[in-house]
Amino acid sequence: MKITGIETLVCNARMRNWIFVKVLTDQDGLWGWGEATLEWHTRGVVGAIEDLAQLVVGEDPRRIEHLWQTMYRQHFWHGNGIVRGTAISGIDLALWDILGKIHGVPVHELLGGRVRDFVRLYSHLGGGRMEDFYMTPVSEAARFADLAQQAVGEGFSAFKSMAVPETMPIEGLEPIRAAELCVAAMREAVGDAIDIMVDCHARPSPAMGLQFAKALEPYGLYWFEEPCWPESVDGLARIQSAVSTPIATGERLVGLHAFRELLARGAASVIQPDVTHCGGITETRRIAALAEAHRVALAPHNPQGPVSTAASLEVGFATPSYVICETVHSDVPWRADIVSQGFEVDLERRVVYPSSRPGLGIELNEAEIAKHPFEQELPRRSYYSDGSVGDW
Fold this sequence. Notes:
The chain is α/β, with parallel strands linked by helices.
């Protein structure tokens, strides 16, 4: 059995272009689907996939670990960069899809079988504009409370929001009080039975991240996400040691080695590898094993397309340390048109039951994908009040 080609299908989904990867084989009707979505870097990822194809076309698709090592190591710079890591991930997911189809079983069976009966989902409320936090903090808090109630009304028992404004490296009390007002409004709106997460999007400095973490600690957050740059492992460790709130990070980390340092320093209680960036299912398995050794929870980053979701869920059904999965269900109204999937979603509880379909349990509709061709994303820019560049 041989790989005969690798195709990429780009599908514009408003905020980002989904990049689907199709690995073809010399067996009639046998191919695998992967995803390598990386917003604002679509052309770079597609090009990286074309480069990697030279290493795997003609090889046996069943030798997943061997092919992963080939893609990672057979070039001087290794596969650590985000574009290279994303390209490897997309191909890797497709190889696992193929292997499951060959054996007629879902991927979670290949990973050791189910460790749970369902996977819990959480939604994302989004965030506010910086000027809204400062100019109309009371109405902004009310808006977050309304969104929180809406999420609970849709069946979610957990949700995340970006209720922390952008800040310069050091600021006064105003942004801290604005964040506190928003989180207090959400907690009051939904009560203690609902889990609330707050995502800082790595905007604060370690010093500001610590102040936000302490201010929001009384509200019992399920986790406090990316309170500073993920590269600032010492800063994350200081924040985690200063509060009881679990600190979450990892969506921007590529590869096992980055997570090894994070966990060795006790810098997080929840890690969030993204299967479309960190090295696919193959590397996510290793990261999950490392998290288990440190008794740290795993909750994957998953704001992309349907193949990313399927792969994240398959990992979840076979991973003990896995606690919850991010879901995007209303990004584009035609999302369901491009995919057929075997997962059963309980809309009243927002949990997912495992698929019995082989591989990743999905099939993409290429004709529907073609209706939404590539569009250049609009780069987001963020500046502080003095005109200096901030983090988006």
